[in-house]
Amino acid sequence: MAARGSKVWLNGKILPVEEAKISLYTHGLHYGTGAFEGIRAYKQTAGGGAIFRLEDHIIRLFESAKIMGFTIPFTPEQIMKACVDTCIANGYEECYVRPLVFMGDSALGVYVGDNPVLEVAVLVWEWGSYLGDRGIREGARLKISTYNRPHPNSIMTKGKITGQYVTGALAKKEAKSQGFDEALLLDTEGYLAEGSGENLFMIRDGVVKTTPLTTILNGITRRTVIEYFRHLGYAVVGDRFTRDELYCADEAFLTGTAAEITPIQSVDGRIIGAGKPGPLSQKIQQDYQKIVRGEIKLDFMKNWWTPVKPS
Ligand code: PPE
Fold first, then answer.
1. Taking a C-beta distance cutoff of 8 angstroms, is the pair 8, 15 a contact?
2. Fewest 10 Å CB contacts: which of 103, 227, 254, 267?
3. pLDDT interval class at 310 (50, 70, 90)
4. One of 7, 143, 160, 172 is an active-site residue; which one?
5. What gap in Å lies between CA 169 and CA 179, rounded to an integer?
6. Which residues of the chain does CATH 3.20.10.10 include?
7. What CATH architecture is 7-125?
8. Using CA atoms, how far apart are residues 88 and 111, in angstroms rounded to an integer?
9. What is the mean pLDDT of residues 200-224?
């Protein structure tokens, strides 16, 4: 197992992980009433570490909380500082950062009553390639899932809500048990939505296409890729597409904080393009690493790097 930070931030304090105890009566444990973020800190080419797009992730955390009706008892600036402080407390310049807010020990039962306790934590750990080193090098093997990305009237698609990850966990388990690297979920109308933990892009005849925001998580890596490709002069469209259109793509890749840019080698056993990362996928894969490490810094990349250094 990858190394985990021995210190965590809980409700305003850095603690050794053994001392950060929560109750078995925690509402979020029973009903999935929580919201979280997944963020990465990277070693910078010029030295030191920096958390990538921290502000955008914390904005999304507060939006998830708003969607859930939570009032986080800290400001976005305090949570941002908590993320930096947790990296520093653990001596990490490069790691995965997981802010988590959840309903704590108050009334049980689905209806939490008028006295919910909201717990806020930040955890950090080392996390390598999300879909395996082979996936990064040669492309991941995907399967269209028998599970759907839920209809917007069943889940809060714009929220990163803990309980909503059960569908993704089932889809991923199904795909892995059949020898695939990842599951691709269709929406309830049969169009492609996203992976269990990534957004999806395909390229055909030089046009970059990604699934629209209707049912998917509004991924921050997705935004980085769209903004960067547009800067390079490529047409990028957010439009629905079907699994057979994806089978016939020239190139395809997944995006996510954990997955970064992972090329797709095959979908349902159909080889995509030449069966190896295509030229545009390779370009964005390499340039993404330069962006997160501060080697490519462009005007529109405002506040994308938050240094990990004691204040
Ligand atoms: N869709 C889903 C369902 C998703 O969970 C993620 C991130 C994305 C898209 C991409 O979003 P972004 O990271 O903002 O580009 N998934 C996170 C959790 C993975 C996990 O297994 O835990 C992540 O990549 O951090």
1. yes
2. 227
3. confident
4. 160
5. 16
6. 132-292
7. 2-Layer Sandwich (3.30)
8. 38
9. 97
Q: Give me the architecture of the 132-292 domain, per CATH.
A: Alpha-Beta Barrel (3.20)
Q: Is 160 a catalytic residue?
A: yes
Q: Is the CB of 155 under 6 A from ligand 1?
A: no
Q: Where in the chain is the domain with CATH 3.30.470.10?
A: 7-125
pLDDT tens track for 137-167 = 999 999 999 999 999 999 999 999 999 999 9
219-273, pLDDT tens digit by residue? 999 999 999 999 999 999 999 999 999 999 999 999 999 999 999 999 999 999 9
| CB distance 5 to ligand 1 below 6 Å | no
Query: What's residue 196's pLDDT?
Result: 98
Regarding the beta carbon of 222 and ligand 1, being less than 6 Å apart is answered: yes
Q: Give me the amino acid identity at 230.
A: R
pTM of the model: 0.97
The CA angle 256-164-195, to the nearest 5 degrees, is: 35
